[in-house]
């Protein structure tokens, strides 16, 4: 590969032989604005066995710790509904959350700082490195969660929720950006979905965990809802400390890889899209990116999907109660739909990465599932309890499949690391907007009627997602044909093509 000596790899291969006649050494002196040889066969000349081992090495180092961090993030931001339902709503009695819109206020206040700090968080990620930036953030919001167990008024709860949003703002866009910097486009959907779906499945078991913790009610003077916040906060701090040990930074700084292995990772990225080298986000680029309609369309689709996921995360116990399930049954029946979500999510990701022009089809299909499932669990007669519960499976599977899929689709349609960071922050900020919409549209006084405002808004927004996905696919096909005729250059690179 270069003049450095290499040690023998497994199966008797040398990394220096992986590129065959073509030298694989990655030259970081080339900027993303320079000329690149993009090619569909990004693995040409590499030994398949050794390449597979390197990719697996990256997968095992990157995905599990990010999944653990996002899992506890989901648990911490959505456990409010579970804590509220515990021990015959002891939390409601203590904090008087049922008066007016107090519960809605406590739910919503997480999102304004979460949205506003998405973009600054990306700057900090590059400046301080993923290990210290993300690990510290997790520890800090874990401390906030512990403090939430000791609030005495609904005002304090609302304020602490806002502080939680400050620290959680770093993780999801940071993780999505980090994954995009490590993998070529053909591998992004599966990795994004794997990272997200592992988190979703495990966080779905949080209802069972919350029920178990609620049995500590009045132990050592703390009520069940307090134990839920305190114990889950301690778990969060522990995961943050693990982050210091396990999170890896960007490919050019990855110490768990050899020099040759880092070259291979970066060369694949360069062959795929020509942006392995980081570029700085300045005001000129920021202005250019923010005026690009495509990115806002992705943001809208992402936000519409999170309306479905947040509404079920915050209100599923109450929705199940309207179906006739008892309080304990409702808490225990939350988990199965989240486990099921792994199947449609991973299937969508596999198709998106391996079937040409299938990303838009997968997004449109999942949005349709949200529409159908939401209509089933909200509109079918109360006597059809099993069918209504099946609708929860379909709706939750659809929205939680689309959340990572839309994010990865956006990342495959752009070039340059500065644009990746901007896009991740913008899209995830729309996720926060979706959380606000879900919190205020599912109106407390409509709970007995099945939350009609929230339900029909969710259906309408996801119908628009179907139209957006189809529209983007048609636009990308048109632009790719123009680029093939030399009429336009996409993303500043003559060989670059959109993936619909």
Automatic annotation (TrEMBL):
The chain crosses the membrane at residues 132-154, 160-181, 193-213, 225-247, 295-316, 328-351, 363-380, 386-410, 422-443, 455-476. GO terms for molecular function: transmembrane transporter activity. Its main location: membrane. InterPro entries: MFS, MFS_trans_sf. One of its GO terms (cellular component) is membrane. Pfam families: MFS_1. It is found in: Membrane. It is a multi-pass membrane protein. Keywords: Membrane, Transmembrane, Transmembrane helix, Transport. The keyword Transmembrane helix applies. It comes from the Eukaryota. This is MFS general substrate transporter.
